[in-house]
Design the sequence.
């Protein structure tokens, strides 16, 4: 399939969908940080344990997964119809819908909406879509401050850092590091602040309370949008989202077009799948829903920005579009051996881990993220954990083939495979290659070859090679077979 070619992808250099380094280069840096690995290992083990416990309580968990996958598949097949219905319903309830083709358009729309209110500061609900497009940076350029109100996002913002996990953006920080950040960056932090989690949370709550009460504009994302009623939904654990969604006069929601579900019955399936897969809870402590504007109650001006930013290009790939089924639970990150050792920053995208390795290259075009589809061992744990059964290993292989197809020059691997195919077509050449390979025994030590000359050094730089056997299979066959007629 080549239908995805020519469709607009996310603009280069805007937002946070690709890094300045390739994944292998960034991963090497992360692997040299033992504290990072310790933090990640502890956090992911804890989340995995909680998730396994609550998932085990549900007798029809696999049926729920199948239902979620079926709903997503059917929704993507008629996405335009559902989006048009959503627009009608939001508009009928007093909201305004804006269509943003990419991050540049979305940032321009949100910035102009905030400017129209006269506000110089906005409070934000945790939103991966706004991180994807670099909204905070765009607002800052316009002289508008964006205050993250999710605790983990606040830690990242105050630390001048980047998120490293979909659910727990500050997973790479331990509580001692968080205390230091608060004392250094939070002007109203208590002088006697300790690294006790409760004290840290209280300090953040006091810091944010004044921002909530003074805010005139809030910016949110959305976990889901129900097309039949124009209802938006945000699920969260801290209550900060509820404050942002009810107190300010103006609410601006930026939502990827794939977050839509057709009906309330469909939403009920995902509200069972998401909390168990993400936080290991039976249900979210706070599930906030709103439909347009209600006079005298909550925001009196509501804007919904529907974001494409490469999603249409992804949808056009009949295999790759499955990545759009993601409900951002982060279950695949918590079981991934690669993520657990490298962390999220190595991926260079706001979407790290297995889902980021298949989503980010499609949003940007694989040429801008060519190494991410290789950031996996293809162990399959991500598929087993995914609540909507996204076949991430299959998508990784699919995208690897696209990376190879789009390269103008053959890769070293392709050249090596072509040479191997040429040798294997000739019995004489194959036998000679087998005899020559025995010379590699001189490079071995205790059954392993730890270093080979270029270009084979690319292999031994990250793994050992086995020492060739003393005799080839053909030699063994001639020695042990009574009448074998074979070339040595």
Sequence:
């Amino acid at each position: 399939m080549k239908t995805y070619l020519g469709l607009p992808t996310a603009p280069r250099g805007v937002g946070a969908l690709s890094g300045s380094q390739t994944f292998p280069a960034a991963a090497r840096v992360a692997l040299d940080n033992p504290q990072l690995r310790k933090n990640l290992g502890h956090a992911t083990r804890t989340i995995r344990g909680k998730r396994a416990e609550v998932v085990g309580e549900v007798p029809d968990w696999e049926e729920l997964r199948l239902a979620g996958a079926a709903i997503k598949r059917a929704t993507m097949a008629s996405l335009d119809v559902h989006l048009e219905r959503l627009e009608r319903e939001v508009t009928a309830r007093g909201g305004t819908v804006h269509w943003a083709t990419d991050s540049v358009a979305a940032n321009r729309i949100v910035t102009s909406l905030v400017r129209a209110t006269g506000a110089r500061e906005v409070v934000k609900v945790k939103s991966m879509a706004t991180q994807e497009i670099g909204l905070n940076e765009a607002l800052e350029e316009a002289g508008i401050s964006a205050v993250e109100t999710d605790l983990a996002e606040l830690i990242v913002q105050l630390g001048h850092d980047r998120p490293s996990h979909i659910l727990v953006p500050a997973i790479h920080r331990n509580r001692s590091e968080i205390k230091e950040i608060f004392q250094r960056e939070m002007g109203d932090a208590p002088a006697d602040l300790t690294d006790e989690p409760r004290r840290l949370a209280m300090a953040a709550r006091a810091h944010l309370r004044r921002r909530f009460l003074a805010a005139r504009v809030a910016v949110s994302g959305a976990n889901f949008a129900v097309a039949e009623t124009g209802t938006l939904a945000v699920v969260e654990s801290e209550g900060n989202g509820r404050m942002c969604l009810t107190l300010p006069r103006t609410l601006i929601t930026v939502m990827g077009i794939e977050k839509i579900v057709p009906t309330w019955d469909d939403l009920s399936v995902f509200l069972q799948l998401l909390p168990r897969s993400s936080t290991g809870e039976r249900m979210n402590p706070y599930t906030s829903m709103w439909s347009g504007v209600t006079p005298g109650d909550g925001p009196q001006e509501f804007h919904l920005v529907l974001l494409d930013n490469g999603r249409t290009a992804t949808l056009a790939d009949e295999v790759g579009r499955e990545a759009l089924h993601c409900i951002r639970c982060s279950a695949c990150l918590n079981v991934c051996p690669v993520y657990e050792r490298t962390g999220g920053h190595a991926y260079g995208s706001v979407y790290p881990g297995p889902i980021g390795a298949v989503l980010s290259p499609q949003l940007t075009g694989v040429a801008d993220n060519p190494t991410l589809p290789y950031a996996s061992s293809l162990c399959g744990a991500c598929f087993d954990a995914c609540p909507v059964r996204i076949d991430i290993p299959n998508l990784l292989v699919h995208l690897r083939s696209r990376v190879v197809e789009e390269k103008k020059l053959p890769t070293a691997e392709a050249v090596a495979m072509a040479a191997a195919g040429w040798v294997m077509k000739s019995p004489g050449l194959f036998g000679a290659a087998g005899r020559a390979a025995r010379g590699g025994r001189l490079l071995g030590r205790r059954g392993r070859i730890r270093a080979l000359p270029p270009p084979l050094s690319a292999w031994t730089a990250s793994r050992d090679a086995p020492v060739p056997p003393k005799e080839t299979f053909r030699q063994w066959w001639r020695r042990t077979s009574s009448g074998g007629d074979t070339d040595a």
Residues 23-312 form a domain with the Rossmann fold fold (CATH 3.40.50.10420). The two ends are 45 Å apart (CA to CA). The chain has two domains: 23-312, 412-480.
